[in-house]
Specification:
This protein has 221 residues and is of the alpha/beta class. It has one domain (2-219): P-loop containing nucleotide triphosphate hydrolases (Rossmann fold). Helices cover 34% and strands 28% of the residues. The protein has seven helices and ten strands. It has a six-stranded mixed β-sheet. A four-stranded antiparallel β-sheet has the order 2-1-4-5, covered by helices on one side. Helix 5 runs parallel beside helix 6 (172-189). It is globular.
């Protein structure tokens, strides 16, 4: 599902070039759950952005579900991401002026689904928010907002789910509940899961744990 070959990313700064990724080689099988751990600044989030096509590497190749991302233009890349990848961020990234239902329906509407709102309603029910469909993000708790974000990420039934510190802004019990939902949806849908977490115990729930340090994979699990 995920193939990275010698992926490098170098960015310019006032102090000169900064090497963010320094030759990443990674293989993730379809349906596999992989935890990604490492110290702050090790390149975990950048690697996820490269996998999701949100950042283009300076060199190397990225192939997701058999599609070489480097060969895609920006529009084609956006469509690929819309149809194949679900992303859950630490900070939720919900549209504040849209209800929970509208937030979940966004990717479905972009995909041209006529049943977008029906499927969005079902998705919210699946994460225990059937009674909160008309609420705006500001009217929801942090845990509820993350559940909306999770429902949105899986609404299109993606081949790959990526979660970047999805419990980072939640208390322990709420974070645990959200992760139970995430792993449950992973099992139910048979999707590939790439989970970035500072929580070693959480990462260990995955099939495999890879470790990054200084832009390199030091342990591929």
């Amino acid at each position: 599902m995920v193939v990275l070959d010698d992926v490098r990313l170098t960015l310019g700064s006032a102090a000169g070039e900064v090497n963010i990724l320094r030759g990443i080689d990674l293989r993730v099988s379809a349906g596999e759950a992989v935890g990604v751990v490492g110290p702050s600044g090790s390149g975990k989030t950048t690697m996820m952005m490269v996998v999701g096509g949100l950042e283009r590497p300076s060199s190397g190749s990225v192939t997701i579900a058999g599609e070489a991302l480097g060969a895609l233009g920006e529009d084609a890349l956006a469509r690929f991401r819309r149809d194949r990848i679900g992303i859950v961020f630490q900070n939720f990234h919900l549209v504040p002026t849209m209800t929970a239902l509208e937030n979940v329906a966004i990717p479905l509407e972009f995909a041209g689904r006529r049943d977008a709102f029906e499927r969005a309603r079902e998705g919210l029910a699946a994460v225990g928010l059937a009674e909160r469909v008309s609420h705006y993000p500001g009217q929801l708790s942090g845990g509820e907002q993350q559940r909306v974000a999770l429902a949105r990420a899986v609404a299109i039934k993606p081949r790959l789910i990526m979660a970047d510190e999805p419990t980072g802004n939640l208390d322990r019990d709420t974070g645990k509940a959200v992760m139970e939902l995430l792993f449950g949806l992973h099992d139910e849908l048979g999707t590939t899961l790439l989970l970035i977490s500072h929580d070693e115990a959480l990462a260990q729930r995955c099939d495999r744990v890879i470790r990054l340090a200084d832009g390199r994979i030091t342990d591929a699990g």
